[in-house]
Design brief:
Blueprint: H1 4-10, H2 16-31, E1 35-42, E2 45-52, E3 63-64, H3 69-76, E4 81-83, E5 109-117, E6 120-129, H4 137-168, H5 195-207, E7 214-217, H6 224-233, E8 242-246, H7 252-260, H8 277-280, E9 285-289, H9 296-308, E10 310-311, E11 320-321, E12 325-330, H10 334-340, H11 345-351, E13 354-357, H12 367-383, E14 387-390, H13 392-400, H14 406-423, E15 432-435, H15 437-440, H16 477-495, H17 500-507, H18 511-521
Parallel strand pairs: 7-12, 7-13, 8-9, 9-12, 14-15
Antiparallel strand pairs: 1-2, 1-6, 2-3, 4-5, 5-6, 10-11
Helix pairs in contact: 1-4, 2-4, 12-14, 16-17
């Protein structure tokens, strides 16, 4: 008979994460095993939703079914699957048990079962015991009973989410594709469980139901595009297109044509009529990334479109009606740009009807480990490694680092460290590869005060020249050239009141090349 605490959880209003985590903890105690994991099937991979006995970053990993034969075998069978203690199949949790951090799993017992909801595979439940002989016939029979309990817990949680969604999201309209409401692309997944992130996701799910313009604010690398995709996916427009426009990459001479389209003969090279991005997004969502980079003339035309829902192709006589929701994003302070005259005040107020600040990675606590786990598994599969993990010291280094480049920087740090570890002599792809702090190559292991979004990183002051020396202090030529370029670009921006397009014309360089150079020099 199932224990009362487990049954009580089914009758209690609990968040899914809490209900499933308590189930995993109970199963670990009940079967006296080293680790229990509940993994949900999403497309071609399994996502851990509750673990007990594994390191925290395991929750951020995504296990491709084709790369993990044990998980594939459990998923393929409709009954409890056991693996003999000397099975040669690789274990997906090698190096991830919290009692054997970084060590290969010794000879051990392993069993699991597929979970189904509404007659379809939902995922798997796995148990690992370090002592052989733990999972006998009685344990297998007991797990078959607990499978029913686990499926009930999943089904209850799904029903609770559906009820909540009905309260906050308008129903699909006739002709809408229901599949658009479910995001199955692991590359577009927002990973994390911190309180700031959960509050943000709840806020986005509420505002998604409206047609209000949303302005996503956040530092570079926080994943503004992922949050824009979530807004669209949770909105009534989810079956219609989501069109992404990188405003910083639009040449000023073509920006108007790209956004609003043109007719044949509108300018040299316009040999056919061409619709713009607004028409491509008609009925759906237009995501204007780095909106602060739009030239002022285009800003005026964008404002008219937001006001009356009409666009006019370049060279056309008549306007066209479009029904588009606009989501904009920037890592710059648009208020300061308005004050400097580089951004229209009326357009700013139109775009920022609902501003949404996205918290930087340094404010999301242990989310850094979950996201690191995601990148660790990606690099493990990409490099063909048996196991790739972080040492305890490396985990602490990730927690303490300030992450000025946020999630994008974390991805690069993990990828670079994995390559460095593999390039060391004596390292074998069949080993458990452990990343230490030195491999992470972090500039500093101490968190620094957060900078304002879009602020230029502080640079150490140049050392004073020795007494009696009139020329510049000797140093690497690259540093001298960078300093000269930095000063020249800053002076041009000052004369142009912060307008990058005007500064590019003054410096006689391509605007997109200027943006790339400015990022390398730390000016953006």
């Amino acid at each position: 008979m199932l224990e009362n605490p487990v049954l009580a959880d089914l009758a209690t209003d609990l968040p899914q994460a809490v209900r499933l985590q308590r189930l995993a903890a109970h199963l670990r105690a009940r079967f006296r095993c080293g680790a229990v994991a509940l993994l949900q099937l999403e497309a071609d991979h399994l996502r851990p939703v509750a673990v007990d006995g594994l390191v925290p970053e395991a929750l951020g990993r995504r296990f491709a079914v084709s790369q993990h034969p044990r998980l594939a075998a459990i998923l393929a069978r409709g009954e409890v699957t056991c693996f003999h203690h000397d099975s040669q199949l690789p274990d997906p949790y090698d190096g991830l048990l919290d009692t054997l951090v970084g060590e290969p799993l010794p000879v051990h017992d392993c069993m699991g079962t597929r979970l189904e909801v509404d007659g379809k595979p939902w995922g798997v439940l796995t148990l690992d015991a370090l002592q052989t002989g733990t999972f006998g016939e009685d344990a297998r029979a007991a797990l078959a009973g607990y499978r029913v309990l686990a499926e009930a817990a999943v089904r209850i949680s799904r029903l609770e989410r559906e009820v909540q969604a009905l309260r906050t999201t308008p129903p699909l309209r006739a002709g809408d594709d229901e599949r658009g409401a479910v995001g199955g692309d692991a590359d577009q997944e927002i990973v994390g469980q911190s309180a700031p992130l959960l509050r943000l996701l709840h806020e986005l799910d509420v505002v998604a139901a409206s047609d209000l313009p949303v302005l996503l604010l956040g530092e570079t690398g926080v994943g503004k595009e992922l949050f824009a995709r979530r807004l669209h996916r949770q909105s009534p427009r989810r079956s219609k297109p989501l069109v992404h426009v990188n405003c910083a990459a639009l040449p000023e001479s073509l920006a108007e044509s790209e956004l609003f389209g043109h007719v044949r003969g509108a300018f040299s090279g316009a040999v056919t009529d061409r619709p713009g991005r607004f028409e491509a997004a008609d009925g759906g969502t237009l995501f204007l990334d780095e909106v602060g980079e739009l030239p002022l003339p285009v800003q005026a035309k964008l404002l008219r479109t937001l006001q009356n829902g009409e666009i006019q192709r370049l060279g056309a006589d008549r306007p066209r009606r479009v029904h588009v929701r606009v989501i904009a994003a920037t890592n710059r302070n648009l208020r300061e740009q308005v004050t400097a005259g580089a951004f229209r005040a009326d357009l700013y107020h139109r775009l920022s009807v609902y501003p949404v600040p996205i918290p930087p990675l340094r404010e999301r606590g242990n989310d850094v480990l979950l996201i690191a786990g995601r990148f660790l598994e990606l690099n493990r599969a990409r490099l063909g490694l048996r196991s790739l993990r972080l040492s305890s010291a490396a985990q602490e280094a990730l927690r303490r680092y300030a992450w000025p480049g946020n999630i994008r920087e974390l991805e690069h740090v993990i990828s670079r460290a994995a390559l460095k570890a593999l390039s060391r002599s004596g390292v074998n792809r069949a080993d458990i590869v452990t990343l230490e702090p030195a491999l992470l190559d972090l500039e500093s292991n101490t968190a620094v005060p957060p900078a304002a979004a879009g602020a230029t990183p502080a640079r150490p002051p140049a050392p004073p020249p020795p007494a009696g020396e009139t020329g510049p202090a000797p140093g690497p030529l690259r540093d001298v050239v960078d300093a000269c370029q930095r000063a020249h670009i800053s002076a041009a921006l000052g004369r142009c009141q912060g307008n990058w397009a005007q500064a590019a014309r003054m410096l006689e360089v391509d605007a997109s090349n200027l943006h790339k150079l400015a990022r390398r020099l730390g000016l953006k």
